[in-house]
Structures are given as structure tokens and as C-alpha cells.
Design brief:
Helix content is 59%, strand content 0%.
Length: 69
């Protein structure tokens, strides 16, 4: 599973909209959507913010591990 799928899965599991998560990483809903859909890349700084928010490891987020921590 790649990080885009993981991002969407975590967002949906937390019942959040793209706009809500976009605000966390200082992106518009459209900017966040572009990341989830592969039209833009996720910055490392934003990865760190999302990992902290969802309380998961970076390895989990990028698909290197199935363990969340």
C-alpha cells in the first residue's frame, strides 16, 4: 500500500474531510486532494505532521510496516 492510500484510509477512518486534513498541513482542500490523488507529492514536513496527528509511524504511513507504531 502506498502513502496516498494510507492517507485516504486514515482520513476516512477518522471521519475527516479533505479540507479538514488540508488545514493541518496548511493546504487547501484542492491541494490536499492533489496529494491523495497523485497529482502532487507529500512534503516530509507534512508527513511528520500527519504522523503525529494520526499517531502512526512514518514507516506505517509510507507502507513499510503494517504496525501503526
Amino acid at each position: 500500500m502506498d502513502y496516498r492510500q494510507r492517507m485516504r484510509e486514515l482520513r476516512e477512518d477518522h471521519d475527516l474531510s479533505q479540507a479538514e486534513v488540508g488545514k493541518l498541513i496548511q493546504k487547501s482542500q484542492q491541494g490536499y486532494s492533489h496529494i491523495e490523488n497523485g497529482r502532487a507529492e507529500l512534503k516530509i514536513e507534512d508527513l511528520v505532521v500527519l504522523c503525529r496527528f494520526y499517531q502512526v509511524s512514518a514507516d506505517y504511513m509510507v507502507g513499510l510496516s503494517e504496525k501503526t507504531r
